[in-house]
Design a protein that fits this description.
By secondary structure, the protein is mainly alpha-helical. The protein has 13 helices and three strands. Strands 1-2-3 form a three-stranded antiparallel β-sheet, with no helix packed on it.
Length: 275
Amino acid sequence: MSKELEAFLEYITVIRSLSPKTVNAYRCDLNVIETTSMKPLIDLDSALIFQTLSSINNKRTLNRKLSALNSFLDFCHRHQYDSALSKFSLSKIPKALPKYVPYESIMRSLGLIDRSTWIGMRDYALIVFLYATGTRVSECLEVREEDIQEQWLRVRHGKGDKERYIPIAQEALRALRIYQEAKPFHHHSLWVNYRGEPLSRISVYKICQKYLNTSPHTLRHSYATGLILGGADLRVVQELLGHSSLLTTQIYTHVQKHNLHETVLKCHPMGKETV
């Protein structure tokens, strides 16, 4: 690994305080480019970089590596490792509309869960919790019992290490109470497996797949979509989801527009008229 790359990784770790997961992603992407080209990153020209990345067919993967490279080159320029500042344009990728599961489908699936065991109670409470709070999987798994106060959830370490509070629906609170009373283990983590150990990300994914045939992140989209369809303002949804920018939340504007269109067709006197 070149000294410039080591300096960059130290910078984003210490100065920018990026998460270990993010730093590791930068390390892997940039180290692959440097190792494959057999030259320090700072000595690579555009032709050699594109030759090194030419085998990548997935545009999202390519964009991630180019974005990491742009961050590295910007660091080198600002810290005078290199006088020139090069920037690589990213490939345009059509924005995919977020998938979501309608409320009725979620409730039907929840009704099929066998709650005669504490594991069944846990699975029911977990799915209801994810749908009722819109938390990320990582946030959900970090919840402790003391993070739930009255009707509020305290998310202590959201993305970017930000803290936020989310109101919890009564059904989710009821399911949590029943699960906590039935749970045979005492652990600081709210969600545990059959051995009393903290539940893993893959376990949460498998539970959602088992009952809903979907992912935990789709439940997050379903939470946001349900709020938008109910008339919630985008900025409120932004706050509840923990998005740092409203631009991220704007992927849900298609739901808002569709809902407005349906409302006009249904409620306006001219909505039902045909030409």
